[in-house]
Design goal:
119 residues, two-stranded antiparallel ribbon, two-stranded antiparallel sheet, 1 helix, signal
Length: 119
């Protein structure tokens, strides 16, 4: 009889301790959950735009978000926005552009069937 009472008392204590531990864990999880901050869903000036889009008023230039100030005249591809290329001193879109020869296309594109296509 004493053994049964002792067993019941021990099981009751273990059950109470487990419940108290669960309550503490829930409280800790709620606190850490409130501290989690979310990152911006878009990139701003200088952010890497390889895996996420740039925010409004920013364009992806050479893998980085840059302010949306696009030059129409250029000397090299770095001065153009939106992955456009510098062709004969002007920023032009590379994909789908009509061409007569490979010189009419951007770097990484070739003239095929009178259209610039990626190599």
């Amino acid at each position: 009889m004493k053994v049964t009472v002792c067993l019941v008392a021990c099981l009751l204590l273990v059950f109470i301790e487990v419940n108290m531990a669960n309550d503490e864990m829930v409280e800790e999880n709620e606190l850490t959950h409130n501290l989690v901050k979310r990152a911006a869903s878009c990139g701003s000036n200088g952010d890497n735009c390889q895996y996420k889009k740039c925010c409004n008023n920013f364009n992806c230039v050479k893998g980085r978000c840059r302010p949306q100030i696009c030059n129409r005249s250029c000397r090299n591809n770095r001065q153009c926005c939106n992955n456009w290329g510098c062709i004969y001193g002007s920023c032009k879109q590379c994909r789908g552009r009509t061409c007569k020869g490979n010189n009419d296309c951007c770097n990484g594109y070739k003239c095929a069937y009178k259209r610039c296509q990626k190599k």
